[in-house]
C-alpha cells in the first residue's frame, strides 16, 4: 500500500504540551512535515522566510483568501495569519504526514476542506494538573494563569469535535501514542480506496478465468 | 481514563488468516474476549456448551430473536447461528475488547446496533497471493478453491464499509497491527465523553473561583 500523507490537526490547552510533542515527533520520526503559516506581520530578528513563517504582503494575502488558497486564516492585532493550501498539499502528495498546530476554529475549517484530516486534542490528565503546570513554569503572573484557565474552559467546549484525545501525562508515552494514532490512520479503509479497488479487479479476473 | 471495551468485528477473505490472527490476539494479550456464538445445531463430539458454542433449542433461539437478544443471526442448513447480545455487553462492561469473527452482512447489523464498533477487514497483500495460499494448503480441491475465490470476489464489494483494512503479509506484523488499531480506538473522543465532560466541569470550577 502506497499512502498519501495524513493531514493532522493538533490542538490542546495552553500548557498541555502541544509544542513539545510536535518537536519530538519531528525529531524522532521522519514521516512528518510541519505546516508553515503565512503572515503579514513583519519578520522579527532571526526569523527566516519559509522557516518560521512565509512572510507576505497584505495584498498577496488577501489575493490568496480570494483564490481559496488558504486552508484557514485569522486576523490578530491587525495582521493576518493563515495556512497556505499549496504547501500542505505538496507535502501530503510526497507522502509526508503534515502537522498543523492550530486551534478549534481553524481545526473546523480544515475538517470542512479535508474531511479525512485527523483531529487530535492534547489534554492534561486533569484540570488540577493543568493549573499546576501553568503555575509551575514560574514565568507567568497569576493574572495570565487565570486567563489561560478561563481560555481552557472555553476551549473545552469543542473537544467532542476532535477524532482523538491524547492525555499528556508522561511525555515519552504521549509522543509514542500520538505517533501510533497517526500511523494507524494510514490503514483506514477511506485512505485505501485505490488498493481495495485494485484487489477487487484482480479477484474478478480470477473468477472470470475460473468460469471460462 | 477508564474504558469500556471496544467491540471489534473481524472479517476477511477465506484464506486471509482471520482465525490465526484471533488466536494470536487471544494468546498474546489479555484485553481480548472472543464472542461465543449461539447455535441450534447439535453439539459435535468434544464440543462444550459455552466454549465452542452456546447450544440452544430452536424455541429458545426464536424467543431471543423476538426479544432482540441477538446482535446478528443467520440460518444455515436449517440451523440458526447468532451472537448473543448479553454476553457481549457483559464482556464490554468488564473492559474487555470483544472480537466477533463474522462476515459482511453480520458486520453491518453489528454496526447498526453498536455504532462505535470497530470494523476490520483482513486482506492478503494481493489476489495472486490469496490464490497461492488457498492452493498451497493442498487440502482443497480445485473446485473448492475456485468457489472460495469467487466468494472473495463477491465479499470484496463490501470492503469500503469497514473502518480499517489490515494486510496480512507477515503474520507477526499483522497481529501487532490489528492490536495497535484496536488499542488506539480507545482514545477516540467518542469513547471518552465522560472524561471530557469531567475535565470541562473541573475547568469551569477553576474559572468560577478565579472570577469570585
Write the layout of secondary structure elements.
The structure is a homodimer of 212-residue chains.
Chain A: E1 7-12, H1 18-28, E2 32-34, E3 38-39, E4 54-55, H2 58-66, E5 70-76, E6 79-84, H3 85-93, E7 97-100, H4 104-113, E8 118-123, H5 127-136, H6 142-155, E9 164-167, H7 171-185, H8 193-211
Parallel strand pairs in A: 1-7, 1-8, 2-7, 3-4, 8-9
Antiparallel strand pairs in A: 3-6, 5-6
Molecular structure report:
2 copies of one chain form a homodimer. The two termini of chain A are 31 Å apart. The first copy, chain A, contains 8 helices and 9 strands. The first copy, chain A, is globular. The first copy, chain A, is α/β, with parallel strands linked by helices. Chains A and B meet through helix 5, helix 6, strand 9, helix 7 and helix 8 of A and helix 5, helix 6, strand 9, helix 7 and helix 8 of B.
Question: Key terms for this structure?
Answer:
homodimer, 212 residues, alpha/beta, five-stranded parallel β-sheet, four-stranded mixed β-sheet, 9 strands
Largest interface: A-B, 46 and 46 residues
- How many β strands of chain A by DSSP? 9
Oligomer: homodimer
Task: Please count the helical segments of chain A.
Answer: 8
Decide which structural class fits the backbone of chain A.
alpha/beta
Q: Estimate the helix proportion of chain A, in percent.
A: 40-55%
Would you identify the regions of chain A where 5 or more consecutive residues have pLDDT less than 50? Answer: none
Order of helices and strands of chain A: EHEEEHEEHEHEHHEHH
Rg of chain A, Cα atoms, Å: 20 Å
User: Biggest β-sheet of chain A: count, sense, barrel?
Assistant: 5 strands, parallel
Please list the strands of the largest sheet of chain A in the order they lie side by side: 2-7-1-8-9
Strand content of chain A: 15-25%
What is the overall silhouette of chain A? globular
**What is the distance, rounded to the nearest whole angstrom, between the alpha carbons of the first and last residues of chain A?**
31 Å
Q: Mean pLDDT of chain A, nearest integer?
A: 91
